[in-house]
Each structure stands twice: as structure tokens, then as C-alpha cells.
Specification:
Blueprint lengths: L3 H16 L4 H6 L5 E8 L3 E2 L3 H11 L4 E4 L6 E2 L4 E8 H31 L6 E3 L9 H10 L13 E3 L1 H7 L2 H11 L6 E5 L2 H9 L4 E5 L3 H11 L4 E5 L4 H10 L3 E3 L2 H4 L6 E5 L1
Parallel strand pairs: 6-11, 7-8, 8-9, 9-10, 10-11
Antiparallel strand pairs: 1-5, 1-12, 2-4, 3-5
Helix pairs in contact: 1-3, 1-4, 3-4, 4-5, 8-9
């Protein structure tokens, strides 16, 4: 799933940002012993992600809160379907409402878009992955939502793998030199990926034994030739200007991975409400 300790730290920061010293409205208007029940409802269709995260928001505020999930992460829901019930102190529900909704709406939006992309490559060997184009501080949640939707994760951070991009190549003085330098220093468990923009660079990366080769902004014809040249000697990743309209054609060529920044960087949050009943 994900690291719960990291998620709790994200939520704590969010609560402190939102509540700070006090919730002046709730603390003035609502009696401390007031008890309520609230329902979380999908206001549009989509794929749910983040129910446990929403529960954690309320539980961190008050361990006695009762959060009952009516759906599971990954469920496709229709407009008007209830997602969860929250029972407990009215103050707790009101104080946690906004952060819980912000997170589950964002995560469900990502899961919904990821499901759309995953369906496009169903039946092929190609995987759709996310990128590091995530909201600062929320990466672990957004990448989890990508998996819930049926797509896969790329690197979580700069420590996960060597990725030699155009600026690295320029600064070091060539693809071969960059790969050789990295290979001497990394553990045997770390892979090396190289970004290439031409078939000449592809052949150099293959000769230098790159593990993964990113085909950057290539058209379909060039990618097809790259697959033929590579013949399985490295994992091929298509990246750059990837749209839903191009996905099926790229997958049909036979690349192994298609990375899509749009899964996270420009997604629209799913509309979800929480109302006291």
C-alpha cells in the first residue's frame, strides 16, 4: 500500500496549516460534547482512492471517531453513491472535513484518469507509468492513486535509479562516458536509464549496455525502428507528448513502458462532498 508513517506526517502538516491555533468558528458554535454523523458522497462518477487517508485525517484529530468505509479504493462509483460514514464529535468532523476531502478528491481524480489510460493498453505488454511531476509533499499519495487506477509507478525520487537525461549527457560529454561513469559507482541493484532523441543515440546506449532507454519525443515511425533495433536488449520507454489519442498506437509498436506526466500534473479532482446528516 504505502508508508503509513509518511502519510500521517503529510496529514499532520495539512491539519496544522488549516487549523493552526484553533478553528474559531467550530469552537465557538459547537458544544464540545456534540455528536454527529456525516456521509461522504460522490458527486460525479469515478474511481475512488484515499478512503484510508481520509479516515486517518479524522483519527489523528480524535482516536474515538468511527469511520466506516462503504466502498474500497479502486471501486468505480456512480454519481450519488455514498463512500463512507463518519460518526463522532461534531467538532472533529468539521475540523477534518476540508483536508479529508482535499486529499480524497485529488487522489480519486488521479485514480480515475489512471483507469482511463490503463484501459487503453489492456491486452498488450505495455505498462503505463507516472512521472515525478507530482504535487510537492503529496507524491506518495498521488503515486498510490496511480496504482489504484491500474497504472504503474516510475521513480519515486532521484535516489531510485540512474536516469541520464540530455543535460547530463551534455555536461559529462556523451552517453557512453555517462553510463560507464555511473556503472562504476552504483550498487548492482540499481538500474541505469538513458534518454535518447535519435536512433544514433539509441545504438550508443545499447552498446554501452543501458538497462532502460527512454525514447524522448519520437514519432511513431522512429519508435517502431527503435523497437526493431533493440530486439529486447533493453527496456524501452516512450515519453514526451503522450496523449490518450496516441497511446494505443504506441503500445501496438511494442514499447515496454509509456510514461505519462498527465496522470498527476494536470488532473482534475473528483467532486466529493461530506455532509452532516
Amino acid at each position: 500500500m504505502y508508508n503509513q508513517l509518511m502519510v500521517e506526517e503529510i496529514i499532520k502538516k495539512g491539519l496544522i496549516e488549516d487549523i493552526n491555533y484553533t478553528d474559531i468558528t467550530t469552537d465557538l458554535l459547537i458544544e464540545e460534547d456534540s455528536i454527529s454523523e456525516a456521509v461522504m458522497t460522490a458527486k460525479e462518477s469515478g474511481v475512488v482512492a484515499g478512503l484510508k487517508v481520509a479516515e486517518t485525517v479524522f483519527k489523528l484529530l480524535d482516536g474515538q471517531i468511527d469511520f466506516q468505509a462503504l466502498k474500497s479504493d479502486g471501486d468505480q462509483v456512480a454519481q450519488g453513491e455514498d463512500l463512507s460514514l463518519v460518526k463522532g464529535k461534531t467538532r472533529t468532523i468539521l475540523k477534518g472535513e476540508r483536508l479529508a476531502l482535499n486529499l480524497i478528491q485529488r487522489m480519486s481524480g488521479i485514480a480515475t484518469k489512471s483507469r482511463e489510460y490503463a484501459e487503453l493498453v489492456k491486452g498488450t505488454k505495455t505498462r503505463i507509468t507516472d512521472t515525478r511531476k507530482t504535487t510537492p509533499g503529496l507524491r506518495i499519495l498521488e503515486k498510490y492513486a496511480v496504482r489504484v487506477g491500474g497504472c504503474h509507478n516510475h521513480r519515486f525520487n532521484l535516489s531510485d535509479a540512474v536516469m541520464i537525461k540530455d543535460n547530463h549527457i551534455e555536461a559529462v560529454g556523451g552517453i557512453t562516458k555517462a553510463i560507464e561513469k555511473a556503472r562504476l559507482a552504483i550498487p548492482h541493484t540499481v538500474k541505469i536509464e538513458v534518454e535518447v532523441e535519435s536512433l544514433v543515440q539509441l545504438k550508443e546506449a545499447l552498446a554501452a549496455k543501458a538497462d532502460i532507454i527512454m525514447l524522448d519525443n519520437m514519432d511513431l515511425e522512429l519508435m517502431k525502428k527503435a523497437v526493431e533495433i533493440t530486439r529486447g536488449r533493453a527496456i524501452l520507454e516512450a515519453s514526451g507528448k503522450i496523449t490518450k489519442e496516441r497511446i494505443k498506437d504506441i503500445a501496438a509498436i511494442g514499447v515496454d513502458v509509456i510514461s505519462v506526466g498527465a496522470l498527476t500534473h494536470s488532473v482534475r479532482a473528483m467532486d466529493i462532498s461530506l455532509n452532516i446528516i
